[in-house]
């Protein structure tokens, strides 16, 4: 194969992933004068950032002046069970307020307090009201703002392009091979540095809030390039995903519902979270319904309701109720906002949730309780990076957002993902700029690597017979859901590892029928490698 006939696109920097972290990194690179290309697997604006509904965590102190970045840092470290990279957690807490104000300068329209300041709401694990929000569609507003800024900034955008693998020359990154999803033709991106902002790998599980794009591509590509993965065992099951009807099982129900006063009850009508307060949170968590009601009414001396404990605590509590036979009819718990807020308040503060349940479940949350249960939502782990530059152990390879590991430790607090992607997207752009400025050697492509990557991809089409990629993906999801769930044991994990070994063997002969033009089966087969790497790492 002669690679000179392949489409080749050259930039100083290639950013992979068009969520908040990727766009923020691309903006930073472009603002500093670098030729920047942004590559995304689907269409611009379809990234998972838009699913982040509740708000962006930043210690602005607009609602409670006692808040401070040091308190935010403490909450993040404690929520992560102190497994966090402390330097990343510190940078995150320090820089988050500036990043939120920057978004406002760029046109983000946040909800306001009576004094005209950016409004902030309560969320699980945060000591004070800290989440700057736009109703319950904050992520959508952030993406809209960043896209608008990015388009005017002038970097190139390459949509519907699946990234297959990274190219290295002399131990450093020199580019990447991609495939146009519509035509099936290959493209070589030549660059001095690559920033991975590909999100997580939730589609390895059967019940997940993640959309089809989240197949662990960044983890797989980084690992194959020689980068380290850390804390991959720390996967977050958001406690409140829809459990009914089956077609929407796993769809996210924002923590903002509980932040606005929503309560969790079992089939006996009991608020079970009062029975599930960990020792380390006793001092600041209400232990009576009376105190929780005072907190909701605005009493600053009252302690927070137990529904606002960290996500891991709430998810385990719901699972415990279900296992004890006290769950909802479809295997979850009941989330009730109707008895805590007026109909007008609910529709005004949670418009997306109101609409979501009306359309998907034919349920009115202003008068009825919701059925919710844990859903795989987020990866705390990811590619190991330097805290200040976001560079991996591979020269020229950077990672940020959910793709990078470290800041959240063993458990992420709600709202910290949006501030994470803003803070570390900018730092990744700065780090990549400094690296490119210091790199004097011209970028050279290893043609043998390019040929190998393309042959590996086309072999899936060229085989006469082989394993069905859809059935393999289904089997993988069953393994992860049953053996690598909220509660894990040595025997379950060993069982899962053995099953994964069998799936790896089957993957070696995976076959996609049809031609290379828009072929979903082929795309599924290509993503399977990254999902298997991700699953095995977990």
TrEMBL record:
<keyword id="KW-0560">Oxidoreductase</keyword>
<dbReference type="InterPro" id="IPR003953">
    <property type="entry name" value="FAD-dep_OxRdtase_2_FAD-bd"/>
</dbReference>
<dbReference type="Pfam" id="PF00890">
    <property type="entry name" value="FAD_binding_2"/>
</dbReference>
<feature type="domain" description="FAD-dependent oxidoreductase 2 FAD-binding">
    <location>
        <begin position="12"/>
        <end position="418"/>
    </location>
</feature>
<dbReference type="Pfam" id="PF02910">
    <property type="entry name" value="Succ_DH_flav_C"/>
</dbReference>
<keyword id="KW-0274">FAD</keyword>
<dbReference type="InterPro" id="IPR036188">
    <property type="entry name" value="FAD/NAD-bd_sf"/>
</dbReference>
<feature type="domain" description="Fumarate reductase/succinate dehydrogenase flavoprotein-like C-terminal">
    <location>
        <begin position="473"/>
        <end position="537"/>
    </location>
</feature>
<dbReference type="GO" id="GO:0016491">
    <property type="term" value="F:oxidoreductase activity"/>
</dbReference>
<keyword id="KW-0285">Flavoprotein</keyword>
<protein>
    <recommendedName>
        <fullName>FAD-dependent oxidoreductase 2 FAD binding domain-containing protein</fullName>
    </recommendedName>
</protein>
<dbReference type="InterPro" id="IPR027477">
    <property type="entry name" value="Succ_DH/fumarate_Rdtase_cat_sf"/>
</dbReference>
<dbReference type="InterPro" id="IPR015939">
    <property type="entry name" value="Fum_Rdtase/Succ_DH_flav-like_C"/>
</dbReference>
<dbReference type="InterPro" id="IPR030664">
    <property type="entry name" value="SdhA/FrdA/AprA"/>
</dbReference>
<dbReference type="InterPro" id="IPR037099">
    <property type="entry name" value="Fum_R/Succ_DH_flav-like_C_sf"/>
</dbReference>
